[in-house]
Design goal:
The protein is mainly alpha-helical. The protein has 6 helices and 2 strands; from the N terminus they run H-E-H-H-H-H-E-H. It has one domain (2-119). The model has no long low-confidence stretch (mean pLDDT 91). The chain crosses the membrane at residues 33-50, 57-83, 95-119.
Length: 124
């Protein structure tokens, strides 16, 4: 049940990022909400599996940059999720530039934090 809530929160945050950030668009033959749901699923799976390892490996540089490099790790996770979603499902999100992905990672982090606070889902 917690994974489904995480998936929905991520999908909502990705939807807001697609709506707000120029350079982030949905792709595929599906409707926009299907592409966002697929991308949210892939991003949730990546955040559970690969992201903790990437955070551990980037810990020294994150300490040196006072945590700012953590945003670069989030941006790289967006790129990996976009590549997997477009490669496997031919649907998802297209990222135009690194700058738009960077801003989208900030928007996704803020929106998911707000939605998790509203839902009371801050246990993980």
């Amino acid at each position: 049940m917690r994974f489904i809530i995480r998936w929905l929160v991520t999908a909502i945050a990705v939807g807001v990022a697609v709506w707000l950030v120029p350079g982030i668009d949905t792709v595929g033959g599906n409707e926009a909400w299907v592409s966002i749901a697929i991308f949210g699923l892939i991003l949730s799976l990546i955040n559970i599996s690969i992201k903790p390892l990437m955070q551990l490996l980037s810990l020294p540089i994150s300490v040196l940059t006072l945590g700012i490099f953590y945003l670069v790790v989030n941006t790289l996770m967006l790129y990996i999720a976009a590549w997997l979603a477009n490669g496997i499902f031919q649907s998802g999100v297209e990222i135009a530039t690194f700058g738009s992905a960077f801003v989208a990672s900030i928007v996704i982090s803020i929106v998911s934090g707000i939605v998790n606070a509203v839902l009371g889902n801050n246990k993980d």
